[in-house]
Amino acid sequence: MKVLILGCGPAGLLAAHAASFMPDVEIKVVSKKRPSELFGCQYLHGPIPGLILPTTTVHYLLNGTEEGYATKVYGSRLMAGQVSPAALHGTHPAWDLREAYRQLYDWYESSIEDCELYPDTIPDLLTHLQPDLTISSIPLPVLCQREEHAFRSQDCWALGDAPERGQSVPVPCPADTIVCNGDPDTGWYRVSNVFGYKTAEWPGLRPRPPFTGVVPFSKPLATTCDCWQPDLVPQANPSILRVGRYGTWTKGVLSHEAFNRTIAVLNERVSR
Fold this sequence. Notes:
This protein is 25% helix and 26% strand.
């Protein structure tokens, strides 16, 4: 079986790792060949077979209300039931995503073909390689074939510890803790300190925070794109399995789900 992975970020390499558990599989990863920089609160919500990872228990706290948090981050209290404090409050186990990604990149680097991907190059790539299964973790707008499709997202700012750059987060946070803040008088909306790596995030609805190293990023929310989805567009052939938050352009998608989803789809195909 030939499995093509688009993207070499955490979700893409977790999908490649899942494919490696199948017998007689040929894995090719097509992507810009460079490790992704991980911003924001990054950890795995479940274990990954074959990886030996540090684990901890994360404490998720909320200052203020879910409505205040939703208004601060998204500009609407109607998002209150969909924000992370609503789903992840309390304590839960965590696995080190940064260490997982370091291991995965070392293992699968030789399978990565350095290539810049664009919407108009995807069809030719699939025609040339003829994979049995294509899995995409690249930002979905790069995969989309129709200009009328919409992509909703929320702009934010982030800063992470980077000792090699002399960069550190100025917001205090206890170890193994994530603090979400719905107080409108506090600039940041989330600060985390997990596996010794601290990050802070600010809403893009406000001006850029006055700290060196702050970078902009977008949180995908939803899309109308149905390209390469045969269940939605019967004439779509071949189909592409989407994984990861950016690959699916869906809020609430977790990194470890890329591994689990890939395993499920491959097992289904083998059992046919």
